[in-house]
Give the backbone structure.
Amino acid sequence: MSIFRNIFFVGALLFLVGCSSFKPLERADFLRSDTALVSYLRSENIEVTKQNDIEFLNGGVEKFPRLFEDVRNAQKHIHLEYFNFRNDSLNSILISLLAEKAQQGVKVRAMFDSFGNKSNNRPLKKRHLEDIRARGIEIVEFDPFTFPWIDYAFARDHRKIVVIDGKIGYTGGINVADYYVDGLEGIGKWRDMHSRVQGESVAELQKIFLAMWNKETGQNVGGDIYFPAVANEVGNVDIAVVDRWPGKNPKQMRRIYANAINAAKDSIQIINPYFVPTPIIRKALKKAVKDGVKVDILLSDKSDIPFTPEASHYVGYKLAKLGANVHLYYGGFNHSKVMSVDGKFCTVGSTNLNSRSLFYDYEDNLFIFDKDATSKLYSYYSADKSESYQLTREVWKKRSWWKRFTGWFANILTPFL
């Protein structure tokens, strides 16, 4: 027990120290919210690429047919980096397609997180990996667990990235699993959001994948073949790819989120599945509400992880009492990780607003500076909100004392959730 107690103490200490050293940008009236965030990104040496086209994929039913089509059309290479490939029928279809492309001479590299694989109820086992490799696919396990295991609880690869021929990129919240299409027993529909990009931002996703691949394999994969020139007909959407690499830029993602919230002038819409934000982000949200920004937060009534709904609802209710509009989604489990600000910019990615994503894991998000794209994302928010109810004082008081206590207690564990 002393080991766990020490880990808890050190984690909590690092959590508090990390939260106390950053002051977000002030909400300046003379700067538009998107201008303010772009300025901050550039000050952090994060490139905002200009030539891009983006397509939002609303759930697994939209993502996988699109992805399978692009895989079939691949000519040179296919790179996949996922938290997990669940060993089910959808994964079987994907592996078969990848094997066909490998037989055609396309180089296929796939990587999955060891913890992500072990934590799902249908993991890839040694015999499955041997079969996949025998079919011409190079597949590796990121940071495999070894004794004493507890050392591997943190810094997991939670990203979901695909890059095809260096020209098409995918990223967002959707892993490879049937339930993104069919739902999950006991929870129902599994809502999520993904994105497909073309243009300059694809090179940034490619850099992320190759860096992780080379780190894990000891290889030195790289070169111009993986970074083709961008076609002239690609769109003009501005996109910044924000990558969280624990050993290189551990504070970057949470600081950018805090600045994005603090930049808002009129409105913020958030959907996030495990909403137990770190103090920096809680402070930014409270300040936004106090400053008169309309803050709308959509949380799930259900979750795939025990404790997390009660913990999220506890935080949500605290914000609701300050004036935020908090709704609970009852149409299943909403696993989307999205935010829109002032109708001017938005973000989609793998990052949960919790300590695991913001303090420990490898994550990536697209920050998209485009009114049309932001409006599209807002339409998905509105549709999900129609399947929700507001978390009011009356609703909260009807909760059992046990659920309210569980929410309070779970927040003590915020540094590890």
Residues 1-50+240-417 form a domain with the Endonuclease; Chain A fold (CATH 3.30.870.10). Residues 2-20 form the longest helix (19 residues).
